[in-house]
Amino acid sequence: MRSVLRRPDFRLLFVALVASMAAESVLLLALAVWVKDLTGSDGMAGATIFAIIAPMTLAPLVGWLVDRHRRRPFFVAANLGTAVLLSPLLAVHDRADVWVIYVVAALYGLSYITLSAVLSGLIRHLVPSDLLADANGVLQTVRQGLRLVGPLAGAGLYAAVGGWLLVALAMTGFLTAAGVVGLLRVTETVPSGADLRWPAELGAGLRHLAGEPALRRALLGYGLGSLVMGFTESLIFAYVDQGLRRDVAFVGVLVTVQGIGGLVGGLLSATVVRRAGEVGALAAGVTFFGPAALALAYPRLWLGVVALLLAGVSLPLTMVGLNTLVQRRTPAALLGRVAAASEALVSGPQALSIGTGAVLVGVVDYRLLFALVGVTTTAAGLYLWHGRRLTPPRAAPARIPAPRRPADPVDHGVVAATHRPRAR
């Protein structure tokens, strides 16, 4: 990871993304808490998360729009736009204003897809192909670190001083990201409009994902796992309450343990990609979730700690493997549409499984559901591992001095054939 951080252009992007990811991490949970505080309704609070996820259906349109513009100025404009769209939250005072939070949440979800799609292309433009896994690994490590403190900090700030300070801090983060990326000096050509005809090219990202063997297997396998992974968002509460016989606040301790595992996974992810290939890293991440879920079916605290550490390691491995695969197997002119489509194909099943898990946990023993998650994700991981040869391992990048000037605009390491965010 030190190799990619030696690059001045990537260091600027890294600083910008730390600012925007910090804003994102303090905002997401706080919006739901805000709605809960104003309405007293758990259902209305949960609808806030749905409002953020719903714009995923517009992913093909978002990707098409991203591919019509140069990456750096579009990234700057998208961050500025995100800061502006948050400003109506400053006018929220009582229950009658809850609709404002829902509208902003939906617009923020649209912004999230947009920023994820353009970021994938910007990283590809700035970083040579052999350092893409390192770049994605660095960003996932930071994201996992922020998950340890961001949501709780956001909820704490809201409880202490109200929503206005939270909104101001989030806006500052996105404005900072726009300003820092504005300092980048890169040469980009304007995409040719002839290749982006409306509406024929809207589905180009999906067609590419279906036609490229490694990407097709990656999304089928990860999609299968995602159909049950979201169950754990509700199951963890039953595990703490019914299994460990502890107060619900203990969930925060377990989330912290998972975050520590996420940091470890982020630091290891680039090495795993180089040694096992992108599909192999994705397979490892999905497979690790299997025994973690199976262990949680047996309520013992020490076993739960081990399981959540393993689950934490799995997330950055899956995201770095998938993001790097998308970047390496997609022509630059198509990357916005493919990144947006892959984000939607991953987030859609996850959203469905979160809702399904919330219903099932009330009628089915949580231990049986954890067992189902464990068996399904293990099967999905093995399916992915069987296809690991579609992306063979790569040698570690040579340790060469960082360039004094931004990376050449030539598309580094693009696979000559056809063709993730989260996460962003």
What is the count of helical runs?
15
Tell me which CATH architecture applies here: Up-down Bundle
Class from secondary-structure proportions: mainly alpha
What percentage of residues falls in helices of 4 or more residues? Answer: over 70%
Compute the number of strand runs. Answer: 0
Counted up, domains total 1
| Secondary-structure element series | HHHHHHHHHHHHHHH
Q: Give the termini separation.
A: 18 Å
Characterize the main sheet.
none
Q: Give me the CATH superfamily.
A: MFS general substrate transporter like domains
Globally, the shape reads globular
Q: How much of the sequence is in beta strands?
A: under 5%
What is the level 1 CATH name?
A: Mainly Alpha
Assembly category: single chain
Radius of gyration, rounded?
21 Å
User: Which fold name fills CATH's third level, the topology?
Assistant: Growth Hormone, Chain: A
What are the low-pLDDT stretches, counting only 5+ consecutive residues below 50?
A: 402-424
Mean pLDDT: 82
